[in-house]
Write a structure and sequence with these properties.
- By secondary structure, the protein is of the alpha+beta class.
- It contains 14 helices and 26 strands.
- It is 23% helix and 30% strand.
- The strands form 7 sheets. The chain has a 4-stranded antiparallel sheet with strand order 4-26-25-24, with helices on one face. A 4-stranded antiparallel sheet has the order 5-6-7-8, with no helix packed on it.
- Helix 9 packs across helix 11 and helix 11 packs antiparallel against helix 12.
Length: 508
């Protein structure tokens, strides 16, 4: 009751920032995983494990207050205690835990303890008067622990998608039975599946998380269940897939601008760039040498691969699918290419944090929130700059409209997406804005307008298509793991890259 009062009064809109509660998870029936998922959602972060939650909270230095009632009613009190203690060890985090009997592990942290049974917190006369006028209600408690979980049909996708996600997660966590691949897919995408949503949306998320070792019948069943979700899974690769192989974590992605190549370049966390067939995700090859500590990639108009290193510098690399000159032509053509000249100019802007290329333009962003565009206008290079964000530029995407105009979309740590046509002033208002950072952007020209995909730090992907006659249509998707990269294929299909999966979605 005390924590209920605290949470009610500390989450009102006019609550002082120093008294606000930012995360509240009543722990009855919760495991440490579901606790981490709900905290991440409330703190507008994306975390698949307690470790990822700790890393994300540690990186975000804003004052954070977390309330965890009913620890004694959780299914994994010791593991949740460990998570709570680790969070409380961060200087900017305060954690309030309610439990019937503090454990030695909690007391070892030297917490401030408020025992509500202590006489100092009770007025005996008022308690006696209240007891006389209030009937004694039979207390009904929810048994804790795995032995009291409701029996669920964990082999039935329709039942799983419609059931209480908290009970489904707890049931999958207490068994080693793979249930045809449903268990692995559920736990892989749990941060998304545990959110309130309709069964069709949950089925689509599960479909996108299935591995190649899953029961083949599950894909057809989940596809049928996901009819009303707004998405269809064209293809997917998840960690552990063998045929075709999973290409590894997707740190950054870029689609080939030359339609006949139909390739997708994927940069992993070790600097390896793999090329995939965009239509199916099958491997096409890789760049010869890894680029150590690379952070972003784009494929230019001539199939040249441009990579951003951790030092904020850009470098050029030849793709295996790029057209190469041979014989006398290769000897005669010794002059710097368009992209070599653009990169020479871009080197003047040190500390690049994001970049993109396309249609003879190279756009870069920096820590000051400024976007720079270098445009090739033979034989010169035109420079344009605009201060678009109040914090670091984290993502860029360039697109050319059917009318020939070049547009640059930028996303920032300030949670804004801005639109800029370099031949005019940037739009004064963001095209999108939320309370969490932008982590990825992708844009493409369509027959009836522009398609824009935005990846947010809390794991949400927004997909919008805008046309002069059709207006703007929006749809969303949450894969579960944190978003690392986005790419759009020529048909408008969306590719989402995470540390666990690569998913190609087709809008219905």
């Amino acid at each position: 009751m005390f924590l209920a009062w605290l949470a009610e009064h500390a989450t009102e809109p006019d609550t002082s920032v120093f008294r606000r509660v930012h995360g509240l998870v009543p722990l009855t029936g919760h495991s440490v995983s579901t606790t981490a998922w709900q905290l991440a959602e409330q703190l507008q972060l994306s975390a698949r494990t307690p470790g990822e939650l700790l890393a994300a909270v540690a990186q975000d230095q804003r004052r954070t207050v977390i309330v965890l009632p009913d620890l004694h009613e959780s299914t994994e009190p010791e593991a949740i205690e460990e998570l709570a203690c680790a969070l409380a060890a961060l200087n900017h985090v305060r954690v309030i835990v309610e439990t019937r009997q503090p454990s030695p592990a909690l007391l070892a942290q030297a917490p401030a303890v408020m025992d509500l049974a202590d006489p100092q917190w009770t007025d005996p006369d008022r308690q006696a008067a209240w007891a006389v006028t209030t009937p004694i209600a039979e207390q009904v408690t929810t048994p804790a622990g795995p032995d009291h979980l409701v029996s669920l049909d964990l082999d039935d996708p329709a039942f799983v998608c419609a059931a209480d996600p908290l009970l489904v997660t707890a049931s999958y966590e207490r068994t080693n039975n793979l249930h045809g691949g449903l268990r692995t897919a559920w736990l892989r995408s749990g941060p998304s599946l545990s959110r309130p949503q309709d069964p069709a949306s949950r089925a689509c998320v599960l479909w996108a998380a299935l591995g190649d070792d899953a029961d083949p019948r599950l894909r057809g069943t989940l596809e049928a269940l996901a009819q009303e979700s707004g998405w269809s899974v064209r293809w997917n690769r998840v960690r552990g897939d063998i045929n075709p192989p999973w290409p590894g974590p997707a740190q950054s992605m870029s689609t080939s601008p030359v339609s006949q190549h139909r390739s997708l370049s994927v940069l992993d966390h070790q600097g390896v760039v793999r090329l995939l067939l965009a239509d199916s995700g099958h491997p096409l090859g890789r760049l010869t040498h890894p680029v150590t500590e690379a952070s972003a990639i784009t494929v230019a108009d001539d199939q040249t691969t441009i990579i951003l290193g951790s030092d904020g510098r850009l470098s050029l690399h030849k793709s295996p699918t790029a057209t190469r000159l041979h014989g006398i032509a290769s000897l005669l053509d010794q002059s710097p290419s368009t992209w070599e000249r653009l990169l020479q100019e871009a080197a003047l802007n040190t500390g690049v944090t994001a970049f993109t290329s396309g249609h003879g333009q190279l756009a870069t962003g920096d820590r000051d929130g400024t976007v720079h565009v270098l445009a090739w206008n033979n034989p010169s290079i035109e420079h344009s700059s605009a201060a678009l964000h109040d914090a670091t530029v984290t993502a860029l995407a360039a697109v050319q409209t059917s009318a020939g105009s070049s547009l640059v979309y930028s996303g920032g740590q300030d949670g804004r997406v801005r639109l800029w046509a370099t031949d005019r002033e940037p739009l004064p208002s963001p095209v999108a804005e939320r309370d969490c950072a932008v982590v990825a952007l992708a844009a493409a020209s369509a027959e009836d307008g522009i398609i824009l995909a935005i990846g947010w730090a809390d794991g949400l992907v927004e997909y919008s298509s805008t046309g002069p006659d059709s207006g703007t249509s929006r749809r969303t998707f949450r894969p579960g793991p944190p978003i690392r990269a986005l790419s759009l294929l020529p048909e408008g299909d969306l590719v989402i890259g995470t540390d666990e999966s690569l998913i190609c979605l087709q809008p219905r």
